[in-house]
């Protein structure tokens, strides 16, 4: 266990392995491009910040040393020589959106004493703390059993806690005869099994042993459909059956496991089972490698010393403890009736306990299956296969920028296997990046048809989701592309559906319009289960040389599409060839990490209007679509500032004239233009100087990709009516011209404006927090 006298700064960046920085009380340490951090990035100053841990107040004092600003919690920017404090659990970034560290102080002695039993059975709330971790941690880090901070209890403490709190999970031991369960969840705790004993007449024993074969089994599959045989041998005097939760996704393990043991000692116990007992102690699922598709049925037995057996926790409990259902059920002796009454009571207690557990414990989701876009979907993992009627005829439908093909024989399903087309199912015969004709294609891997036929037989509906902007631009004829789709379907040999985005807008991946259309209009009303569905594509954000001679992926749109709709993601090489996962990078701007909390202005002491100045000029600086006009309307117009905007007035000359006129009248002015360079800003600082009034520069703290994201969001909502469309050229032109403003230009102060999003409804917020940019 780590020393209690240290504070740790843990790097949370994905794809990095930087060692933690260890601080002692009141020790000043300089962080930057240095051996202390192990960072070699030349963009980072050697002396970026100075940090000092204050154990008494449990805060980290941080002083900015470099002129390149650092960030606090991803938003609040600190400038050179500025000092701030960061609480335990807080985060800071040495460079904009890079090298993020989390502050971890040791738990105070008062909190390290033996914890009282909690109503939920969790120890010290550590599980909840982990659930609130940085969301990017889920994408590339697999759960381990290593504790990441001193705030988490040790394994021994967790075991003590489990005894106080009651039921938890069961982990099998290597030498435990007949047990095949093993929980890989990092929160697994040892617990006792629930065992129930039912005694009946000896003449049922023969029938019981005959039916018992195969009853205690363990069903587990993988991406290639392998089955894990049960280690239980029927007929032994002490046979222990283990039930293991299967791997429910591509990289994440099922969170809960249950081991059930059934003693069969003929000397001490007699046990009758129903005719349908086979498979009662088993996990049932099909070949779906991404979700559980069958109801779990659990039956276990044992008697505790105090006759108050504990019920093991299961995330979604579908178990039943069934009674004997043979012809002698109506002739039970008093002892059997008493046992049956106990069974019924235990069932009711189990349901109440597990309902409370599921309400108190936050669910853990696969990193690539976060539920950010669930339009028309349901996350029920344990629902069985549900299919619609086969389509009688093939048909093509065109709805604006969306074209839909449904082949004859396609059946609606609650399980969708979605695929990109180019680079995933097919590639060019010519070897060129882009097809030279409608016939320039071949199946990319020989394993593709066989794999898709297996998915079809397992109850999946196979659906193609493809961006084809060339159709909308007139570079590709729709008739030729239809011919290609029909050829691909014929080659694969199964019914399938294809959704084709022919232009920009909501249907183009990674935006979710095609998925929403499928769920709402293209699946015969059958609800899609995202936990049982998957998506495979080659635009995965992989770097150059991810494979021998492989180029960098042209975008990350397929991976982001899967993230947005909430299904597991695989590359073609992983899914068809079984290759290991490759490194990848998500976009630097992550809309899910934006917070509406925090200070609006930096430094926080900056105020609107300026204190001690009855009149002033505020000059805004920021990308198009960075939120300048919204900021003016919400925070400056209520204070009677005159709004100067070139979009409304037409030319900068008219803007300057309006500024001078307002200042003569004694009014304050806000100049709402992009103002990227000193030349454009000097026009208005001169007006302020001439009128001898206070002048401040407000810089919108919004990056290029953040502004591009805002523009995409505008185009998809009603706000597009009030704004002209902004091209990529305009964004990059601003970036090229931009020069960071300084007081030397004539400003009394330079203030940063943090972007604090607000939404009129939850639908808007869900859309905004999706990844809307392809790259």
Proportion of residues in helical segments: 10-25%
Major β-sheet, in short?
7 strands, mixed
Rounded mean pLDDT is 74
Radius of gyration: 31 Å
> Distance between the terminal alpha carbons, to the nearest Å?
43 Å
Q: Strands of the largest sheet, in order across it?
A: 12-13-18-17-14-20-21
- What structural class do you assign from the helix and strand content? alpha/beta
Shape: globular
SS field, number of helical segments: 18
When the domains are counted, the total is 4
Task: Provide a quick synopsis of the model.
This protein is of the alpha/beta class and 775 residues long. Helix content is 23%, strand content 15%. The chain folds into four domains: 6-152, Tumour Suppressor Smad4 (Sandwich); 153-363, no CATH class; 377-586, HAD superfamily/HAD-like (Rossmann fold), CATH 3.40.50.1000; 601-762, P-loop containing nucleotide triphosphate hydrolases (Rossmann fold).
Commentary on this structure:
By secondary structure, the chain is of the alpha/beta class. It has four domains: 6-152, Tumour Suppressor Smad4; 153-363, no CATH class; 377-586, HAD superfamily/HAD-like (Rossmann fold, 3-Layer(aba) Sandwich), CATH 3.40.50; 601-762, Rossmann fold (3-Layer(aba) Sandwich), CATH 3.40.50. Helices cover 23% and strands 15% of the residues. The chain has 18 helices and 27 strands. The strands form six sheets. The protein has a seven-stranded mixed sheet with strand order 12-13-18-17-14-20-21. Strands 2-1-10-9-6-7 form a six-stranded antiparallel sheet, with no helix packed on it. β20 (534-536), α10 and β21 form a beta-alpha-beta unit. α14 (652-664) runs parallel beside α15 (678-691). The longest helix is centred in the middle third of the chain and has 27 residues, at 334-360. It is globular and about 80 Å long. 36% of the residues are buried. The model is unreliable at 111-332 and 358-382 (pLDDT under 50). One of its GO terms (biological process) is DNA repair. It is found in: Nucleus. Residues 7-76 form the PNK FHA domain. It comes from Patiria miniata (Bat star). This is PNK FHA domain-containing protein.
